[in-house]
Specification:
By secondary structure, the protein is of the alpha+beta class. It is 32% helix and 23% strand. The structure holds flavin-adenine dinucleotide (FAD).
């Protein structure tokens, strides 16, 4: 589902995963998913967690040779791209979540990555923390939604303003979590 959300068939045929790691917001939807998945990015010189790689990408001069991650259980990974034009519009924002839950539905670990909420994919750390110990019900996820924007600096572009992105992030995160 994440791959299919990137551009149209022609873009997907040509654009690479390595290039997506460098794509400035509003692009980089695939990198958002890779950040939630805690991927490792290998270059000719080193292998680092994607979060470290993204933080230093502006100074990076190495060729990315592989990107790897542990395949999640299907039910633990969720991805949402919000765009005004379907099916291949540019992102208003994108959200990827990797949630580990025990049998009664309680969240025991959460990684949530956001696209368009900064100049590059970022984690919603406050929301991740607030989700721990919660079940995915409207009442229990409310504290996580309340802090979803913590640390964000959304972009403004012709698709949406920073204000709009900040307003709708909790709405879409809520939909993703209650899916
Ligand atoms: C019409 C259109 C629609 C698009 N829609 C989307 C979308 O919906 N979602 C989305 O996320 N993106 C979208 N994009 C952006 C595009 O998908 C990504 O930027 C793409 O993944 C880039 O891959 P590329 O191989 O073309 O990289 P390039 O654009 O060729 O390169 C981007 C940058 O990354 C560097 N680079 C590329 N590969 C490597 C590597 N292996 N190692 C080191 N540096 C590297 C290049 O030097 C360059 O600086 C769209 C682009 C277009 C033109």
């Amino acid at each position: 589902p994440t791959v299919r959300a990137v551009g149209g068939p022609a873009i997907r045929n040509m654009a690479s995963v390595g290039g997506n790691l460098f794509a400035p917001a509003p692009y980089g939807d695939f990198a958002v998913a890779l950040l939630a998945l805690d991927a490792n990015v290998a270059t000719e010189d080193s292998e680092v967690p994607i979060e470290t790689f993204l933080a230093g990408r502006d100074a990076s001069r190495s060729i990315v040779t592989s990107v790897t991650f542990a395949l999640p259980r299907a039910e633990s990974f969720r991805f949402l791209k919000v765009s005004r034009v379907k099916p291949k519009g540019v992102s208003v924002l994108s959200i990827a979540a990797l949630l580990q839950r025990i049998d009664n539905g309680t969240v025991t670990a959460a990684r949530i990555a956001l696209g368009c909420m900064a100049d590059r994919p970022m984690r919603a750390r406050a929301a991740e923390k607030a989700l721990l110990g919660c079940r995915l019900t409207p009442d229990e996820i409310a504290p996580a939604l309340a802090v979803a924007n913590e640390g964000t600096t959304p972009i403004t572009d012709p698709v949406a303003s920073a204000w709009y992105r900040a307003e709708v992030l909790p709405v879409h995160l809520g939909r993703l979590l209650l899916e």
